[in-house]
Amino acid sequence: RRLVVLVSGSGTNLQALLDEIAATGAEAYGAEIVAVGADREGIEGLARAERAGLPTFVCRVKDHPTREAWDAALAEAVAAHEPDLVVSAGFMKIVGKEFLARFGGRFVNTHPALLPSFPGAHGVRDALAYGARVTGCTVHFVDDGVDTGPIIAQGVVEVRDEDDESALHERIKEVERRLLVEVVGRLARNGYRIEGRKVVIQ
Ligand code: GRF
Prior knowledge:
Belongs to the GART family. By secondary structure, this protein is an alpha/beta fold.
């Protein structure tokens, strides 16, 4: 299976996938990363891809006259690599109709909270501010909402009294990286069906 991974930041989830595939071998893992895309230049996630010798592309909203034009350009850039599965690993843009028309049902996102709680760009901060005693991460298929698609897997992380946002996010990411590696491998190796809100992995 061919994976395209989309990033916007440090790319540690991407790195976890790269390390797993390097350790296990693409054959045994069931997938290889064929390209990495981003919505901005100069991020560590792109540097990680370059260090791994992978093709990269950047699709910036401000380079396009409209949001729809950006969405179509992003879909084109991803499609050029003929992915079987697209993985959003800290990609911080909401894709639109064109992208979902082409990749819906094979576009996976990881979110650092237990959806449906705390969707959006500040899930860790929101859980902390709310006083949640446990939070975690969710790997789900992307649909036309924000963090609302069918859930594939979740991991629970305790919130500690001394936590600030970055400490809690780091602890969530330790669980999240393992969950993403495990889920992407299973989807790639076994195949899956989406039945309403349920995801069935063969
Ligand atoms: C991850 O926790 C992801 O869920 C969130 O941003 C973080 C990205 O981390 N959207 P990285 O770029 O993979 O290190």
